[in-house]
Amino acid sequence: MSAHLSYGRVNLNILREAARKDLREFLDKCAGSKAIVWDEYLTGPFGLIAQYSLLKEHEVEKMFTLKGGRLPTADVKNIIFFVRPKLELMDIIAENVISADKMHSPRDFHILFVPRRSMLCEQRLKEQGVLGSFINIDEYILDLIPYDSDLLSMESEGAFRECYLESDQTSLYHTAKGLMTLQALYGTIPQIFGKGECARHVANMMLRMKREFAGSQTQILPVFDSLLLLDRNIDLLTPLATQLTYEGLIDEVYGITNGYVKLPPEKFAAQKKQGEAGKDLPTEPKKMQLNSAEELYAEIRDKNFNGVGAALSKKAKIISAAFEERHNAKTVGEIKQFVSQLPHMQAARSSLANHTSIAELIKDITTSEAFFDNLTVEQEFMTGVDTDKVGDTRSYLHYIKLGHNIDSSCVFAHVIPQVNAYIEDCIAQRDPLIKILRLVSMQSVCNNGLKQKVFDYYRREILQTYGYEHMLTLNNLEKTGLLKPQTSTRNNYPTIRKTLKLWMEDANEQNPNDISYVYSGYAPLSIRLAQVLARPGWRSIEEVLKMLPGPHFEERQQLPAGLHKKRQQGENRTTLVFFLGGVTYAEIAALRFLSQMEDGGTEYIIATTKLINGTSWIKSLMDRPEAQTL
Amino acid sequence: FYVRASYKESKLEARLSLLQSAVDEYNKAKNEFAAKATEEEMKLLRFQRRLDEEKGEALLGLSLHDTLHALLSANYHKQAEQLYRDFRVPDKRYWWLKLTALAEKEDWDELEKF
Question: Which residues share a beta bridge with A257?
Answer without folding.
Answer: A260
